[in-house]
Structure formats: C-alpha cells, structure tokens
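Reviewers of the previous submission asked for a worked example of the structure-prediction workflow described in the proposal, so we include one complete record here. The input consisted solely of the amino acid sequence. No template or homolog information was supplied to the procedure at any stage.
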Amino acid sequence: MNLPALSPDIPIRFIEVEILAGGVTILNRVSISIGAGAPTVLIGSNGSGKTTFLRAAMGLIPPSRGRITWGGRDAVPPKRRAIVFQRPVMLRRSVAGNIGYALAAASVPRDQRERRTGELLSLVGLQGLQARPARRLSGGEQQRLALARALARNPTVLFLDEPTANLDPAATKAIENIVQEVSASGVKVVMATHDLGEAKRLAGDIVFLHRGSVIERGPADAFFAAAATDDARRFLAGDLLI
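From that input alone, the workflow returned the following structure tokens.
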C-alpha cells in the first residue's frame, strides 16, 4: 500500500478523561499520549474499558469529563482515522461492492475505484472473491474485508477492536500479517486484544487497563519480561482481577 503522510492526528492525548454510562464509570481519569511508531496494544480483562478507549480515541464517544486532542487540536473530524469493530457488519453487496462503497464514502474519484479495489483485495488476500456476496464469506474473510473497507479511507491511524476474536489460527495469522504490513507502511495501529500471544507478536508498546483505569503502560518487551505493577503481574499469570 502507499505510504501515508505523517498523521496530523498524532499524538492522540487523553487528558483526565472520564466516560460515564448510566451512572457507571467506564473510563476513569485516563491521561495518556499515543504517538507514532509500532502498534499500541490495549490489554485487560472484559469490561476493563478497551472498547470504550478505542471509540473515544476515534472520536465516536465524547468524554464526560476531561479532553481528548488529536495532534494538539480539539474536536478533529476523523477524516484520516478508521476503526474496525469486533463484529463488523457486511453490506448486502459483493466483496467489491463493499469496498466500492467505502471508497465512494471516502470521496475517491470514480475512475480510481476499480484500481484501488484491486489493490485493497490484494493487500487483504481476497483477490478472486470480488463477486462473492460479502455475507457468504467466512468469519476470517469478513474481518479481512472489514480491514480493506477501513483502509479505503487511506487512514493514518487505524483502530482495531479484538480483530481476531473467535478466529481459528490460520485466520488469525492472516489478520496479524495484514496488521504488520499496514504498520510497516507507516499507519499508526492501536488495537485491543484478549490474546496475550498476539500482543507479544504485534505490540510496540502495551497499555494495560483495569476497571477503566490505565494501570501500566510501557514497551512490550519490558512489560512482558517484568511488569511493574502487582495487577499486571497477576493478569499475566492468569489470575482473575475483580
């Protein structure tokens, strides 16, 4: 894929961010900065706030308190940001039609869409499936198509929410390969995963969340070798954190 320009949305800064839903605190006074470079991977148990963090960083959820800035600016439209959810919805169109819709939404000129569709299908390994109805793809193929649709926006920041959840090892490996290629092209990837092995394989740095708070953040190799906090050590050991 083409190398993206340096992202105008980086760094993404959370400044004392709280997000409340129905009187429940989902994110609790989170202050963190996400910069360029290798993937930032969010880990933590279910309900720790990973999905809400991603949605807020994308700009889909406003903070109840605090601020989020993108490249030092407030309220930046997500023109160069994209997100793939854990269970992406497939349009009632062909594989190529799903990508074409995303390209049109991204204002890609009509005369460039066929070429760009081919490039994206090749990137995610779906070449030859252009005419297949998207809803007849396997789970792993649908996730790869969702990645292609997200990349149709030519994002400089890509958010991924548990992109390999419930996929078999072969499908997981295919998704991880795409993530590595996208990251190597200069796109900043921020992803959540429940799979510690995947976090070790992909992460440049780790953000460990528990009960809506950032408990620990640091380089992945240092985190997995010697986590600094008791909660992180217990989580890595497989203990249930309440």
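The mean pLDDT is 94. We consider this example representative of the routine output the project will generate in years two and three.
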